[in-house]
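haha ok so turns out i had the wrong file open the whole time. this is the CORRECT one, sorry everyone. sequence first:
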Amino acid sequence: MAAESRRKPYIWVTHLTKLLAGEVDCVYAAWFRAHYKYDKRDDGRTFDFAKWNKDHGDLMAVRRKALEADGWTCRVENANKFTLEGRTIDVGGKMDLLATKDEWVKIVDGKTGKARNSDFWQVVFYIYAAPLVWPELKDRTFVGEACYSPTSSLAVSMTDLTDAAKRHIFTTLKTLASGLGPVAVPSPAECSRCDVGNCTYRSTAPEASAETFDF
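then structure:
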C-alpha cells in the first residue's frame, strides 16, 4: 500500500528515545513514522526474531522471579502497554516489567544487545509516563533499570528526570509533531537499518572505504 496519513501523529517510544540519545542523524525517518502508516521495507534483511524473543523472555523471567522473591508484585508486557496522548502527538510504549512494593514502583526494560544511551532515555521516559497513564501510581517513588543480564543493569531514578530532560523530550516531540518534515539526512549506515519502505531519500551507496596504504 502507499503511505497513509495518520489522523494524529504517533511515535513508538523506541524511535523517540533513539532521537533523544542522539543515535540517529536522520530525524526525517522518525517524523515519517509519526505521520504515516507505511509498508515496511522488505529487501532480504534478516533478523532472528525467534532467538531475540526467547533470549528476551528468558531474561525477563529471571528478573521477574528475583523481584517476586523479594516481595515485589510484577505486571508484565501487554499489561503495561500504553498510549500517552499529547495535544499534538501521541507516544506508545510497553514496559517489560512494572513492579510495585509498598510506596515503590520499579520499571524494568530488558535489553539483549549492547548497552546504548537510548536505553537510559527509554527508562527515563517510562518514569515520566507511568504516573500520567496510571494516576493511582503518581504518589509513589519510581525507580527503573535497563536490564542486560541477571547481574548487569543500568539504574535510573526520578532524579534523572530533570527539567532539562523534560525540555529535551518536549522539544523532540514538537519536532516530530510538526506538519513540516525535517530535512532528510540519508547515510549508508542509517539507511541500511531503516524500515521505511520506498523512501525517496534512501542512500544506496556503500559505506566509504579506502585501499590499504603503507603507513
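The beta strands are 4-5, 10-12, 36-37, 73-76, 81-85, 90-94, 97-101, 104-110, 141-149, 152-157.
again sry for the mixup
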